[in-house]
Amino acid sequence: MAITGRAFWGTTYQGKVARVAPAAVTRQSQQSSETTVEAVIALAGPAPLLKPGHSVDLKVTTASKPQTLTVPFEAVQEEKGQRYVYRIVDGWGLSYISCLPAFPSG
Q1: GO cellular-component terms in the record (predicted)?
Q2: In which band, very low, low, confident or very high, does the pLDDT at 104 lie, cut at 50, 70 and 90?
Q3: What's the pLDDT tens digit per position in 43-84?
Q4: What is the C-alpha to C-alpha distance for residues 105 and 14, in angstroms, rounded to an integer?
Q5: 85: exposed, middle or buried (C-beta count within 10 Å: 0-12, 13-18, 19+)?
Q6: pLDDT given at position 106
Q7: N or C: which end of the chain has fewer CB within 10 A?
Q8: If DSSP states are collapsed to H, E and C, what string results for the chain?
């Protein structure tokens, strides 16, 4: 996982998820709510610029599959149990491509 943050702009630390809380927690404010899941991250090495209380951004890679086209989840359509995405043909026309799950269950 890549760990970045404003407090250490331009520096990226590496780490792995060591533990994830068993449940999400929703916090309410006057204008909105925020749902978070606490996690403990094991750093891969020293992180001298990372301090307690800093907010960070995490880029977590849960799996990878070489030679695979990926699209945003929101681009996938579903009709009658079939998943597909649209593609542009010859610069303007649309056709669709069936989607298979990247990591089939089982």
Answers
A1: cell envelope
A2: low
A3: 999 999 999 888 899 998 887 888 887 888 888 888 888 888
A4: 29
A5: middle
A6: 46
A7: C
A8: CEEECHHHCCCCEEEEEEEECCCCEEEECCCCEEEECCEEEEECCCCCCCCCCCCCEEECCCCCCCCCCCCCHHHCEEECCEEEEEEEECCCEEEEEECCCCCCCC
